[in-house]
Amino acid sequence: MAANEDVDLSPAALHLESPDGRSFVVRGPASQRPRVGDYLELDTVGGPLAFVEEVLSDAAGAGFVASGSLVGESASASDERARWAQAPLRPTQDAAVEALLSGSDPRLHLGHLVDHAEVGVALIPKRLNRHTFWCGQSGSGKTYALGVLLERILLTTRLPMVVFDPNSDFVRLGEMSPGADPESVAALADRDIVVLRPGDERSPLHVLFKEMTPRARAAVLRLDPVVDRAEYNALLGLMADLDAVDTPDIVGHLHSLGDPDATALAQRLQNLGVLEWKTTWAYGAESATAVIDRRPAATVLDLGGYDRNEEQLTVTLAVLDDLWARRAERRPLLLVIDEAHNLCPPDPETPLGVAVRDRLIQIAAEGRKYGLWLLLSTQRPSKVHPGIVSQCDNLTLMRMNSRDDLDQLSAIFGFVPRGLLAQAARFRQGEALVGGGFVPMPSIVRVRGRVTPEGGIDVPVPMP
What we know:
Layout (H helix, E strand, L loop, with lengths): L14 E3 L5 E7 L9 E4 L6 E9 L5 E9 L15 E4 L3 H8 L7 E5 L2 E7 L9 E4 L6 H15 L4 E5 L16 H8 L3 E4 L17 H7 L8 H9 L1 H5 L6 H7 L3 H13 L15 H6 L4 E5 L6 H17 L7 E5 L2 H4 L7 H16 L5 E7 L7 H4 L4 E4 L5 H10 L5 H5 L8 E6 L6 E5 L17
Parallel strand pairs: 9-14, 9-15, 10-12, 10-13, 11-12, 13-14
Antiparallel strand pairs: 1-2, 1-6, 2-5, 3-4, 3-6, 4-5, 7-8, 7-17, 15-16, 16-17
């Protein structure tokens, strides 16, 4: 944010010291104490801004010592370092901060600085080629804000996305809110946004069992390669036979083979009720993987429409496996995983859960070079596998009271000043800390309004 307007940064009172042209220290009386996230402006022509990353009381306790980084294009000019060795400061103007944060396209603005409505904070789309972590506790506005980001991506890029939507929060991404900006409405209406729902006659969400990998089929059947080695081996040996019949005929086909292991597989299918998942299996129709392969601008998978968690995991696994199998095509795709703690917890309880988590770990570790980029959203960072979170280079943090979660984020996202992270417990609804390569500088923003309606909203308390 820009410097506190109540602080008088008199050039005669405060001088910045920068020994290397990159970092700085400034000392002064307590009455002029800046805040973490403030910008201090050097009283020089064309000089950089000083971004405050830490503020401490001085040894006597009567003043402050602030430190941070010099930022802006001229901050890297080594021949200018001497000018900033003892540079005076002046009150920071919004225009100087705006030049650093806002860019030239207002459509890219995720919102504005909390204390400065005139200063927009722009998205840097080309840096979405890194994984992004999006978090905030219930009631923080996390889902609404994520919708804002998805809209900005749709409006300003041609990066296709797949949204794994377990709570049906983004199923209205193709609709427009009353009173929305007409230019944005027209631009979004021109994008190909597909919403796949279980049981939907026009746009069903389902997958083909025969297209799933051997490991994925075994996970659906809860087969362990060691504990259930006979049935698992039988499954591997019968892959060609299973691919030759339609899903509803699998049980009868297995019984007809007269093989004990095949019969055991048939019984497992019946006992688990897998073939009763009528809205999960495509039965020869077009699958979700085929729709995604066409690369609509956005494909929303309404996982919330399933009755069973196993069905959500099965569809998710089928899609992720298919994308990974096609990774050598290097076709850029943003994978938005809402409620990520459900799909990639540290310790899944079922084979399906383990398979989904392991695939996401692999994509987090290796997917970037193939154009598979993750955007993970959750209420509880500690409930997401740390091997995935640690691969993220972009962060959005909304209100978060959990000290453990904030400590974890501070350890992982070292590019965000600890003083900014610590403010998350005091954020109001709709306020967010954004940091990483997809924004110019770590900033606390008030998220802008949405163009599309939110799919899932809170149930109001009945009143007399």
